[in-house]
DNA sequence: GTCTTTGTCAACTAGTTGGTTGATAACGCG
DNA sequence: CGCGTTATCAACCAACTAGTTGACAAAGAC
């Protein structure tokens, strides 16, 4: 089991939670402290701190230090890991879908050919 | 909370499990029955059936009917939902990263300017 | 120094997840 | 019909998750 495997586990699991996806969405616009991030939610500061830890363990986020504040920053690179995984299989699945279309086209053509054959025979 | 919200929850959660990602990977190559899919894993058939149910609930997979067999088919469309979500925020985060670079460049230029000023003053 | 702000750590709880086994349903084959 | 195959359903269990509260650490402000 490769290293990127475990990270994929963490990243997908992290983004499966709507609160955490919202945190990511907000951090995409600007860095923020834990308190600022927690403010809009009906949830304790500790809960948000935990969510941020999950995002950090997944490598989606890093935390700096500014006096007693702990500014949170979104890391873009990790997204690539996911996108690569997704694209690989989406592509294959779509190719298979295209091939199915091709097979159906072929069948149609064969039927046309048979019709032509019958017409030629008549 | 929109409808796609809940589906994002399900899709990300589904792909957070390595067994389920492996199932998706194998289904990208060809459709398969539950038994065929279960064979390589050290796990009961029922467990795999449950995993497939999770993938189905997320819309990643559909199940057909062939006598007592239940062929499983990968659906490519749902991947787009994820890709769109990811790309939106990855892009913003990268833009911010670029802007940071711009700011750093600006600072460097200012320092150069100051150096130039000092040199001019000397 | 003491007080306030900002955040983490620790312990607990309710609900969910990933697995197990056993029973059951649906279908094809003698 | 009864029998084997293929898969789902149901009940159970251990481990994890997402939230809570309370205590505490670290840093600035007084």
UniProtKB/TrEMBL annotation, chains A, B:
Q: List where this protein forms a coiled coil.
A: 86-117
**Top-level taxon in the UniProt lineage:** Bacteria
Could you tell me which SUPFAM superfamilies the record lists for this protein?
Answer: Winged helix' DNA-binding domain
The UniProt entry, under InterPro entries, shows: ArsR-like_HTH, HTH_ArsR_DNA-bd_dom, WH-like_DNA-bd_sf, WH_DNA-bd_sf
Q: Which Pfam families does the entry mention?
A: HTH_20 (PF12840)
User: Which Gene3D superfamilies does the entry mention?
Assistant: Winged helix-like DNA-binding domain superfamily/Winged helix DNA-binding domain (1.10.10.10)
Q: Which PROSITE patterns match?
A: HTH_ARSR_2
GO molecular-function terms, A-Z: DNA binding; DNA-binding transcription factor activity
Report domain HTH arsR-type positions.
1-93
**Keywords (A to Z) from UniProt:** Coiled coil, DNA-binding
Which NCBIfam families does the record associate with it?
A: HTH_metalloreg
Stored PANTHER family: SLL0088 PROTEIN, TRANSCRIPTIONAL REGULATORY PROTEIN
Return the protein name.
DNA-binding transcriptional ArsR family regulator
Source organism per entry reads Tamaricihabitans halophyticus
């Amino acid at each position: 089991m490769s290293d990127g495997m475990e990270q994929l586990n963490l990243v997908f699991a992290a983004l499966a939670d709507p609160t955490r996806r919202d945190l990511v969405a907000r951090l995409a616009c600007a860095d923020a402290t834990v308190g600022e991030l927690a403010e809009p939610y009906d949830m304790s500061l500790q809960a948000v701190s935990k969510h941020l830890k999950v995002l950090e363990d997944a490598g989606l986020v890093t935390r700096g230090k500014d006096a007693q504040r702990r500014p949170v920053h979104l890391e873009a690179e990790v997204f690539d890991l996911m996108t690569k995984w997704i694209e690989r299989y989406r592509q294959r699945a779509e190719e298979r879908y295209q091939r199915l279309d091709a097979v159906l086209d072929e069948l149609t053509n064969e039927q046309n050919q048979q019709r032509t054959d019958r017409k030629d025979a008549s």
